[in-house]
Every structure is written in C-alpha cells, then in structure tokens.
Amino acid sequence: MTTFASGTDTLTRDALTVLQPGFTGTTAPDWLLRRLGEGLASVGLFGRNIATPEQVAALTAQLRAERDDVLVAIDEEGGDVTRLEVRTGSSFPGNNALGAVDDAELTREVAAELGRRLAACGVNFNWAPSADVNSNPANPVIGVRSFGATPDLVARHTAAYVTGLQSAGVAACTKHFPGHGDTAVDSHHAMPRIDATPEILADRELPPFRAAIAAGSRAIMTAHILVPALDPDHPATLSHRILTELLRGELGYDGLIVTDGMEMQAIAATYGIERGSVLAIAAGADAICVGGGLSDEETVRRLRDALVAAVRTGELPEERLAEAAERVRALARWTAEAAGAARLAGGAEASAGAAAASAGAGAAGAAAAEGGGKRGAGVPVDDEVGLRAARRALRITGPDGGPGGGLDGFTPLTEPPYVAAFTPMANIAVGDETPWGVAAELSRLLPGTETGTFTGDDAGMAALAAAGPRRIVAVVRDEHRHAWMTKALDTLLRTRPDTIIIEMGLPQSPTRGALHIATHGAARVCGRAAAEVIAGE
Asked: How many whole angstroms separate alpha carbon 274 and alpha carbon 278?
C-alpha cells in the first residue's frame, strides 16, 4: 500500500495524479521518486530511458519501491515506433504489416507477445494501438502506423490488438481519438485540420474506436486535431463536445482518457502546456501526457500548480479533477489485477505443456513446457511470432511484373550487393535514432554487403557512383511522398535495370525493378524478412 508524504493535500495529490511525465536517464532521478511519494501516479518511458530489458526491469522496480501501484507507460507500437528496442529496431512488424496480412488472430498473437515482453520489464501501460484509418496516403505522421485505409479492417485489427495486449496484463491506450488518419500536417509541428462531414467521420473515423471500446480498451488517447464538424473552436484534446459528449456520451466509454503529448506544437504553440492541460482536464481528459520533449521537475511543478490554481479560481471544477484522478487510480488497480491473472494463465499453460511432455506427448509438448519456462513465473513466450508476421506481410513483384509469389525469373543473390538507402527525415513519433533498412540483415546473410545513405535530387547519381559494379538494392520509405526518391530510382533503373527495390513505407508507388518487395513497415524484423527473399533464404 502506497503511503503519501505528509503535508500533501488532496487537491495537490489529485493534480499530481493526473500527470504522466517523463524524465532523463536510465535510473529514476530523486525528484521523480519524491513526486511519487507526494501523489504522482504515472511515469512515461521513452527511448532515452532504455538500454536493456534488464535495466528497464530494474528501473520499474525502483519506481515501485516508492509507489507500488505506479502506472509505467511507454509508446511501444511495434514496427516503426519502438522504445523498448530503440537501438536495434523492433522484433515485431507494425500495424500496416499486420493489416496487409489481415489475420486478426495473428494480430492478437503479436500484441500478446509484445505485451508479455513489456510486462516482463515492469511496464503495465502501453500508448498503443493506433486506430487511425489512414485514408490520406500523404499523411506525414500516421502512414504505416495504421492498420490500413478502410474502417472495417482497422476496426477488427484494433480490437484484436487490444485483446492481445491486455491478455498480458498491460493496459491498451487506443489512439488518436477521434481519428488522425485524414491529416496532411504532423501535430508535432502544427495543428492539423480534418474537414469531413459528420456522416463521413461517423462512418470512417469512429468504427475502430467503437471496436476498441467493445474490446475493453482501458484507455483512449486524444488527438491534437481540429475537426470543425464536431467542434469548430477547439482541438479534440480540449473539446468538451468531443471528449465528454461524443466519447463518453454517444460512444459510452468510461475508461481513462489521456492526452497526446502536450508539448507537441499543435497545443504548446497555440495554448501553452499549462493552459492546455487545464482545458484538457476541464473538457473531459483524465491524464496529461508530457515528457517526450519536456522531462524535468520544473515541468511537473508548473502543470501541478496550473491545475491547482484553476481549481481555486473556479475555472476547473474540483470534482472534475477528482474524477480524473480516480480514473487514473482505477486503471492502476486494473493493471495489478490483470497482471496477476496473466501470470496465472501463463502458469496454467506452462503446466499443461509440462504435463503433455512428461506424458510422452513428444516434441510439441516438450517445446510447450520449455517455452513456458523462459519468462519466469511460467508465462509462455513466442520469439518467432514477429518474424512469421513480417514474412507473411511481404508483397513481392518479380521480373515478370506479376504479384503474389513474384519470384518467377528472379535468381537470389549469392554475392554481396550494395544497399542504397534513400532516407527521408523521420517524423518525431518514429524518431531518427532507430535503425531501419535491410543492410544489417543482408550483411548477415551475404557477408561483405556495403551500404550508403542518400538524399536529395542527386541521390541516384551518388548511389550509382558509390555502388560501382555491385548489384544494387535500393531501399525507400514512402516513395510516393518524396519526389526526389522517385527521381533517384528512375536514375538507377535507366543505368541498372537489375536494381532490386524495397519499399519500407506505404506501397503507393508503381512496382518496378528486377524485384520489388513491399514490407509495409521499417521494423528490423521486416528488413530481415526482405533480406531472406533477396538471399534465397
């Protein structure tokens, strides 16, 4: 049972409880531990906080030594957006790859295994999945983070993901309500606007959130977007009409509502983070996410004081803040109960596997028993589900131009190629510190593979010069959004028609090259799946 520091009044504790701040370093700073003792109930982890799974487990144990029911949150979508594997790339394909396979049971399995890995590190709250319908291919911030472009597909995979993740005792946070898929602006930089009718919004944007609610999503994250058909004056994060009347009232949602990062420019540059946080809680949000860019004690103090002052001046009803804080505490209680249930379920599965093996059930039973013992506490593990999913997500077009198998007429490489990575600027959600591409995996299969990174109008000529006589593997990411990439590929193919092209973003451009592989995402495991094809593995 958590005991709060003496001298902290209820109002101040509630103001701290609704904050979800980040911090710097791989151990908890003293100020964060002190704030946990004063009422802070949540902590967000980012790539800067993560070195190894063992280090994360030690960090979360340090947090729980101060507050045993703390919510430890992370933005671990899998695919392009990974924090747990920020230095290596994800072991799981992202949403677009899972949507391309369109096997809801596979999506559930991937999310369940991802959840088990988070739980093993002490993380119990995941700011995922993205339920955005990527109806605008030019969207600069969603793209492959979406399951797809149609509401039915996104809805069924959102529900499967929520079910799988929460089966591991990790709370899902479905995002970005009421839907960020039809935007052409990144809300990290400015305020996006969706000019769609109420009927289109109801038919296109809302079905995935209805599915998430039906699946029991414990949290929903708001979008910093302006949707005039719903509220012409306030972005969704600050809109009573969208959060309270629509999400709570019309959709019947009673779980935690958490904001997207308040330091994102859509809010910070328009309202400021203090004013924005007060307006968000007043509108119906229950938790304030901050810490991706602002990660110090001063930020926590400023937000706490802004909320307390708003209550004392009457701008924010005290009962609204108390209601929000209680929803945070309710989610903390759920994670404790769900984690226990997940351990019991895993132990039962492991015991069943052990019994089957001892009864002579053969290799399958022995493998089940062995898998159950890897996690500790008897939770089964599936180290290959991410790779299986990435392989199934590949869309291959061979020299004959035919999709499907696509390998007729293609001879796998036996000599190390030159990998030309045509690299766009990464959006903030993805980050630029996570490696991507196929060079590392091709180097493992074809030792001696070399690589270079190219950008701009002369990228094609520069790649030709660097490659010399070696076979070229050209890797692009969202070619359809970058005219310079198309120009670079045109340059390569005029001189080197045997070039292999790998699209690791949305596959919107025409397929071409001696072999074209669409991976539907840039996770490490997607690169491995593509490299296996090129090397004939």
From this structure: 6
Q: How far is CA 68 from the centre of its chain?
A: 26
* DSSP H or E stretch at residue 115: helix 104-120
Active site residue 180: no
How many separate helices (H) and strands (E) can be counted in the chain?
19, 14
pLDDT digits (tens, 9 = 90+) for 328-358: 999 999 999 988 887 777 665 555 444 444 4
Active site residue 231: no
Amino acid at 527: G
HEC per residue, 344-360: HHHHHHHHHHHHHHHCC
Is 213:256 a contact under the CB 8 Å cutoff?
A: no
Could you tell me how many residues make up the chain?
537
- Alpha carbon 165 to its chain centroid, in Å, reads 12
Structure tokens at 302: 């400023």
Q: What is the mean pLDDT of the chain?
A: 90
For residue 228, the tally of other CB atoms under 10 A from its CB is 11
**Per-residue confidence (pLDDT) for residue 192, from 0 to 100:** 86
Our CA angle for 149, 399, 468, nearest 5°, is 105
pLDDT band with cut points at 50, 70 and 90 for residue 381 = low
Query: Which one of the listed residues 260, 286, 478, 520 is annotated catalytic?
Result: 260
The whole-model pTM stands at 0.91
Point out the catalytic residue in the list 188, 234, 482, 516.
Answer: 188
pLDDT at 449 over 70: yes
Q: In a 3-state reduction of DSSP, which class is residue 465? A: helix
Q: Which residues contact 58 (CB under 8 A, 6 or more apart)?
A: 27
Strand partners, 452: 420
Read out DSSP for 174-238?
A: EEEET--TT-SS-TTTS--B----HHHIIIIISHHHHHHHHTT-SEEEE---B-TTT-SSS-GGG
Q: Which residues pair with 171 in a beta bridge?
A: 125
Opening angle at CA 458, ends 456 and 459, nearest 5: 65
- Tokens found for residue 381: 């593990």
pLDDT at 361 over 70: no
